Amino acid sequence: MGNNTTNPWGTGDRGDRLFPVPPVGSILYRERFVTGVRVEDLISSLRWEQHTPTRMEVFYAETEGKAYTYGENRGRRTYYSKQVVPPIDAAMVAASALFAEGHPHLMPPQFDWCFCNLYHDETNHLGWHSDDSEDIDPDSPIAIISFGQPRELWWRPKGFTGGIPDEWKVELANGSILYMPPRFQQTHEHRIPKGGRRMTPRVSLTLRCSRKSNKNRSKKEK
């Protein structure tokens, strides 16, 4: 992506913020995680697909053609993976290393799935949901790396129907990373709302650990 020959991943200064999400711990947000990666390069190089009118998406995994079904009822759809490309692999490695740095008592997550989302403008969005598929390891974090237009991420406990307070929101800056803690998907849901003003494109890389990844990690622990 671009002509930068240095490694851009994980090179940013700290600037960490923690958001408590009881009973599962805290969301960790680092505003400056990636430098030198342009959103335009991600838009042009990743193999985008149109599964929904609200954004473009593509699913990357270690192998080509891995099936993953998401959603319920009329919103249910199946994705087939593209094989991980070097920029995605680099993001997985860097995100795992950063999590391990802050959690030395835990095994580093073995990110092996990446869902990419492309939001062209302020009308593109992602509704309330949880990444709680049976294929995803609930005991591993999920990381979101953002590029381009800053957009807000909101979260709430499952079953909550009131207004969302400011402490349950964060603006995801260009080059930032956010970790949702293990078991967060079982207790909470999150969304990317529409923008309230004119917005330029944003790309997010959502890194996940499959249950296969968790099985491999368990073998190494024995």
Question: How would you sum up this structure, described in words?
Answer:
The N terminus and C terminus are likely disordered. This protein has a single domain, classed as Sandwich (Jelly Rolls). It contains four helices and 15 strands. It is an alpha+beta fold and about 220 residues long. It starts with 15 loop residues before the first strand and ends with a helix.
How would you spell out the order of helices and strands? EEHEEEEEHEEEEEEHEEH
* Helix count, DSSP H or I runs of 4 or more residues: 4
- The overall pLDDT, averaged over residues, is 89
Uncertain stretches: 1-6, 216-222
**Which CATH class applies here?**
Mainly Beta
According to CATH, the homologous superfamily is Alpha-ketoglutarate-dependent dioxygenase AlkB-like
- CATH-level-2 architecture: Sandwich
- DSSP strand tally: 15
Précis, in short:
By secondary structure, the protein is α+β, with helices and mostly antiparallel strands.
Q: Top keywords for this entry?
A:
single chain, 222 residues, alpha+beta, Jelly Rolls, nine-stranded mixed β-sheet, four-stranded antiparallel β-sheet, 15 strands, disordered N terminus, disordered C terminus
